[in-house]
Design a protein that fits this description.
The structure holds 2 protein chains of 2 kinds. By secondary structure, chain A is an alpha/beta fold. In chain A, 47% of the residues lie in helices and 21% in strands. In chain A, helix 2 packs parallel to helix 3. The N and C termini of chain B lie far apart (75 Å). In chain B, 9% of the residues are buried. Chain B is mainly α.
Amino acid sequence: MTTNKKMRVMVVDDEDHVRRFITTVIKTMNCEIVGEAGNGKEAISLFCTLKPHMLLLDINMPLKSGKEALAEIRIRFPNACIIMLTSLTDKETVEDCIELGASGFIRKDLPIDEMRDVIKKTWRAHRESLKAD
Amino acid sequence: MKPKEKYNLADMLNEIEDDIHERKKDISQEKNIPQATITELMLANLKTKKNKE
């Protein structure tokens, strides 16, 4: 996010207004929205085609849930940066997403500044986790 | 002779009600984990991942 090259981000949520909101927030961070999807199935196929730097993925969606999409994408792209987007912050959901390999987790009701902050922190930590010692 | 009552029923019921109340409180907290806690968990997980590699 500090380099000249824009980070390529994909946003997946079955609700139009949520997608619009998230993409607007992402654009204010000097990132490029390269793709959007409305369900887990579409998310997997679009991710394989676009290979974005970061994926923001809703959990409760039709056809395939965010958790299912996370698991499938993680198998094909072990180094993908995937941040779950949700209003469900129960212990089980959070633990499941960590287990399935999510890099981050964002509550949809988060104030915009905090949302940006979590995205930045997650991206930095994700990149750091991929660096060899 | 009538045996002495070992326990007080009213006290026992109060204890049960307290337990139920406490349990409800625990569950509601688990259903609404604050973002800061989740972020901490996620970042710690990414650090662990790096250390494992």
